[in-house]
Amino acid sequence: MVFRNLTVSYELIKNPIPLLNHRTRWISSLKVVWKKDTRLDEAIEQDKRYNLCARVTREVLNEPGQVIPLRYLEKRRERLRLGFKAMSFVEMNPSLFEIYYDRIKPKSEPVRFVRPTPRLRAFLDEEERIYRENEGVIVAKLCKLLMMAKDKVISADKLVHVKRDFGFPNDFLVRLVKKYPNYFRLTGLVGEEGNNKSFLELVDWNPDFAKSAIELRAEEKTVRTGVRVRPNFDVKLPSGFFLRKEMREWTRDWLERDYISPYEDASRFDQASKEMEKRTVGVFHELLSLSLLKRVPVPILGKFCDEFRFSNAFASVFTRHSGIFYLSLKGGIKTAVLREAYREEVLIDRDPLLAVKEKFSRLLEEGWQERKDRLKLQREQVEKDREVLLAGEKQQEPEERLCD
């Protein structure tokens, strides 16, 4: 049974607001009690140190010449959310940066500068190779985002803001728009107060990209089993959760309804209809499937309410459909997680662009191990020196007594 082990408790709101009851009774009349998933929270926690190192690395690499005076980096600690001194960070990550002396101005005194190590520069070359080899994946992702969007257009600024969530390289717009004019076009618009805004527009619809992860999975199962598999969501929750009868019936009814592709035109659906709810869940599922880690902070998703026709209360979808998503509160940030992509805290749905993150993680771990080994040798040397000193003192004691 699909519902026997589902693990979120639900309650019906007995007296919804009368004015809203008619339009929203099917969707928002169900109140969902959030329940913590420690395994998925752990998956987010594991990336905390990685994210800090990546943040500081980007800060240095974005500087002219990819170098920065140490004291300038120190002044940016609060913005970088760096909880200790910049020099300590450099010392803790010997594979990333090294210290050298230079002058800020020609006649000024030399001061400490931070620059990338040769190993970090080698990683950057490797990163570029991975992006080149997976350019087709990046193009497909970008096309899919535009194909789901209203009018097939998304603000360029918004896309740049989410580039790391989807694994795009820093220069993806410059790189792809010129190379793939059959897919992409940058357009400009004069906004309020004369501000120019750029938008990325889809030029041509590729039907090969118009299949969601759920539809592709159903096709694969059909080929493998020889039996036609109907596209639908994979509902799974940790054991121990309980569904009340009302929610069990609601979920069964909802799952039995036809799957609506996120690439289907949504303009014909009423915003509060069952069909729009099904389509919205499909869009979120597809967005998370396209993301690098199969999870995206809710504030990031909220930037696309207009483009993907999300309601202002869109975040409730993640708790209302807790068998599909998990809403993590780890770190004080709401993060939407795609449950099926994880086995406990381990990401099993691997994006080819994850190779960049994995290589950077290995670079960090090499540096951490080197520092650990160096500190161990230093402690051992201190202990040896102490033992030699004590041995020398013991040898001198009899001589001192003879002199007496």
From TrEMBL:
It holds the Pfam family PORR. Residues 35-368 form the PORR domain. GO terms for molecular function: RNA binding. It comes from the Eukaryota. Transmembrane segments: none annotated. This is Protein WHAT'S THIS FACTOR 1 homolog, chloroplastic. It comes from Raphanus sativus (Radish). The lineage of its organism: Eukaryota, Viridiplantae, Streptophyta, Embryophyta, Tracheophyta. The gene is LOC108814306.
